[in-house]
Structure formats: C-alpha cells, structure tokens
Design a protein that fits this description.
This protein is mainly alpha-helical. It has three domains: 1-33; 41-119, no CATH class; 121-161. It has helices at 2-32, 36-41, 45-71, 78-97, 100-118, 124-160.
C-alpha cells in the first residue's frame, strides 16, 4: 500500500510539474499577446506627436475648401480640392493607425473577427420563423397601445368637456 501511495505521489508531483510548465508557458503567451486595453493604455511622446499631427491634418482638411483657393491657383478646381481633402484625411488615419491606440484598434478588430467566426448563425427557416414572430408581437403591442390611446383620449375628454 505504501508503494501505491508513493507511486501516486510521484504521479501527482509529475502532473504538478507539467501543469506548472503549462501555466508558465501560458503566462508567457499572454504576455506576448496583450489585450487591446493594455495596448491602448500605454502612451509615449511618439503617440502624442502623431495625435497632434493627425489633428492638424484633419483641421487642414476642413479649411482647404474655404482658404486654399485664395492662396493657390490650381485649388480653384473642385477636384483638386477634393483630392487634397482626401489625402489629408488619409494621412490623418495613417498617423492614428501608427499610435498605440491605433494598434489596439487593430487588435480589437482582429478579436472581433475571431468572435464572429464563433457565432452560430440561424438557418433560413429559423430566421423566417423569428421574423414572423416579431411582426405578430409588434402588431399585438401596436393594437394594445392604440386601444390605450383611445381610452385615455375618451377619459380625458370626459373631464375637459
């Protein structure tokens, strides 16, 4: 019996060692794959400069149409102004994508794509059935609210005259 107990203790210690190795491996993986929130909370001078540059580009995009034709002759053409506005917006989006918050947004989009693959979508028959159920419930609630409205109009009409 003592031999069996020693054997069980050895197996338990081996399982703990393997489990501990797996846990430490998982901790290492989680440290590499940080969440979007952790990435978004980090900040640096580079992020601040990119946010300011993006703000300048976006403000410039709003002012191009009004002020640029007075200073630059080719900007009198509407398509040149549209091209400049689009270019400024694209540069602003690129600046924002290079920040830590932009990286966090990309991680969030990737995680959302993974979650969308896990969704079990209803079949066509289920969708039709649920749609009809919703339409019937909306009709019933609509009739009920119409009846309440008529009742309160009648009740208030009694007092008002």
């Amino acid at each position: 019996m003592s031999n069996n107990q020693d054997n069980l203790e050895n197996k338990l210690s081996d399982a703990k060692a393997v489990g501990g190795g797996m846990l430490s491996k998982d901790k290492h993986i989680s440290a590499v794959n940080t969440s979007a929130v952790e990435v978004a909370k980090t900040g640096s001078i580079k992020d601040l400069m990119l946010w300011l540059l993006a703000a300048v580009f976006l403000i410039g995009a709003t002012l191009v149409n009004q002020y640029l034709p007075g200073y630059w002759q080719p900007a009198n053409d509407v398509w040149v102004r549209i091209g400049i506005i689009v270019a400024l917006i694209v540069f602003a989006v690129i600046c924002l994508a290079l920040t830590n918050q932009g990286r966090a947004f990309k991680i969030l989009l990737k995680d959302a794509g993974v979650e969308l693959r896990r969704v079990t979508w209803p079949s066509k028959d289920e969708t039709v059935q649920y749609t009809w159920q919703v339409i019937v419930v909306i009709a019933i609630v609509g009739v009920f609210i119409w009846l309440l409205d008529n009742f309160f109009n009648w009740f208030v009409g009694i007092f008002i005259g």
